[in-house]
Design a protein that fits this description.
heterodimer, A: mainly beta, seven-stranded mixed beta sheet, four-stranded antiparallel beta sheet, B: mainly beta, six-stranded mixed beta sheet
Amino acid sequence: DGGITQSPKYLFRKEGQNVTLSCEQNLNHDAMYWYRQDPGQGLRLIYYSQIVNDFQKGDIAEGYSVSREKKESFPLTVTSAQKNPTAFYLCASSIDGGQGHGYTFGSGTRLTVV
Amino acid sequence: AQKVTQAQTEISVVEKEDVTLDCVYETRDTTYYLFWYKQPPSGELVFLIRRNSFDEQNEISGRYSWNFQKSTSSFNFTITASQVVDSAVYFCALDQTGANNLFFGTGTRLTVIP
C-alpha cells in the first residue's frame, strides 16, 4: 500500500543534541512538507519541498534543517538551536503542492527533550 | 491574508447525538480549497473531504455532512448519530492555489460519551 512512513514514533533528545526525523513516501508525490503540532495551536509549517534538491522555509523554520536528495525522502533535523523542540511532528506529501488535491500525512513522530 | 478559525476547542456529546463542528475561513483568493481532517489518538491525520470554492453544494457521506457557505465564509461539519469511534480532533484547513501550505485551524476535540 502507498503511504508515508515516519520514524521513529517516539524520540527523546538531550539538551544540545541534534536529532533527525525520517519521512519516506512511496506515493510518487512531488511535494513534501513538515509540520509541527503543539497543543491548542494546530499545525504549523516548518519546511516544504516541491522538487528534489529544492526546499523552502515555512512559518517556523528556525532551528530546523532539511534535505531532499531523493523524491521519496524528506528528513528533518532538529538542531540544538531549536529552543523548544518538544512537539509532535507530522510529515506530509502532495501530488501537486497547492493545486487543491490535499495532503497525505504520516503517523507522526513525538519528540521529547529530556 | 489567510486564516482558519475553529472557535470550538472541545465538544462533548452523548452517543447518538448529532454534533456540528464550526469552521470559518478568511482568504482574498477567489480560487481555493477547503478540507476537513480527522486526527484520532494514533496521531495520523485522516482526510475526510475536499471542497473547491466554486462548488457550494452540500455533501453527505454516511453519517457525515458538510455545509459550505461562501456568503458567510463557513464550512461546517455535522456528524449525525455520533459514535464513540468519532472521538478525535478535527481540523479544518484552507489551501490557496500556489500557496504551498495548508493553513490549519486550531482543531476541535470531540469526545463522544457512551
